[in-house]
Model the fold of this input.
Amino acid sequence: MRRRLYFVLPDIKSAHTLMDELLLQRIDEDHIHFHANQPQYLGNLPKVHAMERSDVVYSAMGGFLFGAISGLLGGILAYMVPWWFGEVSLTVIPYCMVLGAIACAAWAAAVASAAPSFRIKSYKSAIEQGNILMIVSVPLRRLNEIRLSLVSKHPEASYRGVWPAEHSLFP
Done:
């Protein structure tokens, strides 16, 4: 299980420094991403991909659920009013549910790929001011170690939180 750490960095030099620091701490390059107002400004740093830039996964899950419910209602309607197919068995209901779920999930994911992520939206003002957003996906067992290391060694990096949120079991 991994958690994403969010840091706002003031410039490209500090982004390169933190990238090197994370690589030395054995965080794979595939788990470090940067987001800037102008992506070409980042150079060879790994940029955020569509899954982090938009809410594709959540929209696809919502579309899947909506499509399954719509398919259930459509399947029941097809079973109850069989005038266009003749005799219809009960197997039409799961077929309609699967077809509706897949179609709505694909449609919702396609629409959501153009909308920005709700997590990145909260950093929009900092990014527009020329700062760089760094997203690091770390193993849960190393979360505090890496966060404290980066905060203590790099005061220019502004720690902005973790996703999914930190929880304390016993307050």
User: Anything to note?
Assistant: Residues 2-49+116-163 form a domain with the Alpha-Beta Plaits fold (CATH 3.30.70). The mean pLDDT is 85. The chain has seven helices and four strands.
